[in-house]
Amino acid sequence: MAIKQRNKLQAGFSMSSMTDVVFLLLIFFLVTSTLINPNALKLLLPKSTNQVSAQPQVSISIKHYRDTDTFSYHINGQAKATPYEQVELAVQALLQNSAEPTFTIMADQSVPIEKVVELMNIAKRNQYKAILATSPE
């Protein structure tokens, strides 16, 4: 008497476990992508209704002359403009003995953001805190 096997091989493939794995990977990458912090500058951005606790020792003003499309940099409100190439050296000289070096960036509304970022790069290179000044509402 011959015994027949009743087990048949199925040619199909179940995709349910694969979709579970893909779903878990998707959630993992979404969660970890929000944790990645780009190499950003640490800035103290004051709200226009509150004051900032850090007291800036130096202020840098950027003035935009629209007719000639030029910019001037004024340190601590001086009437005489400082060339951009000398701004970093001047700020270093003013903040060299400070325990918590901080400076304020005051820019006209028409100043392109790249000019403000250049000053923020100075703060990052020298490990200063930078405060972006705003006008009250």
Please count the beta strands (DSSP E, at least 2 residues each).
5
Distance between the termini: 97 Å
Cα radius of gyration in angstroms: 29 Å
Low-confidence region ranges: 37-47
Q: What is the percent of helical residues?
A: 25-40%
Could you name the CATH topology of the domain at 43-132?
Nucleotidyltransferase, domain 5
Query: Do you know the CATH architecture of the domain at 43-132?
Result: 2-Layer Sandwich
* Helix/strand structural class: alpha/beta
Mean pLDDT: 78
Name the overall outline: rod-shaped
* CATH class type of the domain at 43-132: Alpha Beta
Oligomer: single chain
Percent of sequence in beta strands:
15-25%
Order of helices and strands: HEEEHEHE
Question: Biggest sheet: strands, sense, closure?
Answer: 5 strands, mixed
Query: Strand order across the biggest sheet?
Result: 1-5-4-2-3
Count of DSSP helices? 3
Short description:
By secondary structure, the chain is of the alpha/beta class.
List the helices and strands and how they pair.
Layout: H1 16-35, E1 43-44, E2 58-65, E3 70-75, H2 84-95, E4 102-107, H3 113-126, E5 129-132
Parallel strand pairs: 1-5, 2-4, 4-5
Antiparallel strand pairs: 2-3
Structural description of this entry:
The chain has a domain at about 45-130: 2-Layer Sandwich (Nucleotidyltransferase, domain 5), CATH 3.30.420. About 35% of the residues lie in helices and about 20% in strands. It has three helices and five strands; from the N terminus they run αβββαβαβ. Strand 4 (about 100-105), helix 3 and strand 5 (about 130) form a beta-alpha-beta unit. The radius of gyration is 29 Å and the shape is rod-shaped.
